[in-house]
Every structure is written in structure tokens, then in C-alpha cells.
Design goal:
The protein is an alpha/beta fold. It contains 8 helices and 7 strands. Strands 3-2-1-4-5-6-7 form a 7-stranded parallel sheet, sandwiched between helices.
């Protein structure tokens, strides 16, 4: 399938590892010039080198914390007119909402709702003027099925989803689409670190916990990040301009519903 993306420009946030990296790699394989961001400059440059070596694409590293004004300014200076924007940021910590103060909530909203909105605001009019734009927000399966211990994530990501649902219908006529990718469990560093912490607390092995997690899925496994990257490419393809304001759930069938 020709995605029609060769020669396009993409800004992919939080892309030194995990699902952001998978999206950047998949887009680069399609001939997209990719600008990637992350807080740790060394890890980011290493990832840029790896993507460049694997795909031959132009890859620019823009280190910085995308949840800050300075980090966003650095990213947009490196890629001021992207055709594709992939919003991504680490999720807030789990816990009991009774323990969270206002500052905790503001930090979660800044990272998982207000930062994506700020980046969309910065690029969407340029996309509309050029008559091509693809914006993909990496949110969470918790948008459809809230996770009790992730209350801050549930709230912030649901807020972004509501905002996107309205804006997507306003810009679609300009061939600008905005959609969300909702990951369930994927084999990323975050999943492994969470499993390690849970294993230590439960007195079990990481492998045992990962196998248990896999068997809880109808697919019988956790996701491969490369699959997630391919889904991102699908939403960004030139032929996907009629997919507007959707929430694509990638969870191996864990969310049980007749209609998503």
C-alpha cells in the first residue's frame, strides 16, 4: 500500500523509546522526514541514529521536555511546519485520588491534555493552509475503560478526547484529520518497569507477571510496539482523510463491547 507520505514532515513527541519511537520508526520507513523529541538528549540522539540507519530517512533530534513551553518551542523550531504531529507524553503516576493535591492534577493536565492542545494550536492552521495534515494523539485504553488506580490519567486523557472530538470536525474539510490511538499493554520499557515493581511487591518473577498479563488478553499476548507504529502510519496515510475524530483501540480485544 502506498501511503502517500514520502517527503512529508513529522513531529513525534516523546519518541526516544516505547510507542513514540515505534511511531517515528514506522513513519520514517514511509519516507517521512521525522523530528523526534524527548527529555534525555543522549537517549534521543541514539534513537535518531538508529532510525536513520534502519530507514535512510532524515531524522532530527530536538531534546527537551515537551510538557514545558521551552520544550515545545525547541520542537517547533526544529520542525515549524509539520505535515504530521504525533502527540505523546508519559502518563501520571497511579495512586488514590485522596492523596493527590491540586499541583498533581495540574501537572497531569499539563502533560496529557494541555500540551497536546498547545501543539495542535501551533500547527493546525498551517496544515489547513497546505490542505494536508494528520494529527495523532497517543492516549490510553483507559479513555474507553477507566483504570481505577490511574485517576489522573483517566481524567486528563478524557479531557483531551472531548476537545479533539469537537475540533476534528471543524478542520476535516481542509484535509486535516485528528484521531487518537488508545494503547493497551505493549511491550515497552514502561510496561517492564511497572511489572518489575509489581513483581517485587508480590514476591513473584517479572516473567510470571508478564505471562499472566498476556493470558488476560483475548489475543493471548501483549502488543508489539511495531504494530502500534503501523497503526499510526495507517491514520496518517493520504488515503485516510475520511477518518475523523476517531479513537482506535489497540488492546488485543480486552475491551469487551459490541461497538467500540
Amino acid at each position: 500500500m502506498d501511503t502517500g507520505l514520502h517527503g512529508k514532515r513529522a513531529l513525534v513527541c516523546a519518541a526516544s523509546k516505547g510507542l513514540g519511537r515505534a511511531c517515528a520508526m514506522a513513519l520514517a520507513r514511509e519516507g517521512v522526514a521525522v523530528t523526534i523529541t524527548a527529555r534525555t538528549a543522549e537517549a534521543l540522539q541514539r534513537t535518531a541514529d538508529e532510525i536513520r540507519a534502519a530507514t535512510g530517512a532524515t531524522v532530527t533530534a530536538a531534546p527537551g521536555d515537551i510538557t514545558t513551553e521551552d520544550g515545545r518551542a525547541a520542537a517547533l523550531a526544529a520542525c515549524p511546519d509539520p505535515d504530521i504531529l504525533v502527540n505523546n507524553a508519559g502518563g501520571p503516576p497511579p495512586g488514590d485520588f485522596r492523596d493527590w493535591e491540586r499541583d498533581d492534577w495540574i501537572k497531569a493536565l499539563d502533560a496529557n491534555m494541555l500540551t497536546p492542545i498547545a501543539l495542535i494550536r501551533a500547527v493546525v492552521d498551517g496544515m489547513a493552509a497546505r490542505r494536508f495534515g494528520r494529527i495523532v494523539n497517543i492516549t490510553s485504553a483507559s479513555v474507553k475503560s477507566p483504570i481505577p488506580t490511574l485517576g489522573m490519567s483517566n481524567g486528563a486523557r478524557a479531557g483531551l478526547t472531548g476537545f479533539v472530538g469537537g475540533l476534528a470536525r471543524q478542520v476535516a474539510r481542509h484535509n486535516v484529520t485528528i484521531n487518537n490511538l488508545l494503547p493497551g499493554p505493549f511491550l515497552t520499557d514502561r510496561l517492564l518497569s511497572n511489572a518489575a515493581a509489581a513483581a517485587e511487591k508480590a514476591g513473584r518473577t517479572v516473567d510470571a507477571l508478564l505471562e499472566e498479563r498476556a493470558q488476560q488478553s483475548p489475543a493471548g499476548r501483549v502488543g508489539d510496539p511495531a504494530e502500534f507504529g503501523d497503526a499510526c502510519v495507517f491514520l496518517c496515510a493520504a488515503s485516510s482523510g475520511f477518518i475523523v475524530g476517531q479513537n482506535l483501540l489497540l488492546d488485543g480485544g480486552a475491551f469487551n463491547a459490541t461497538m467500540g
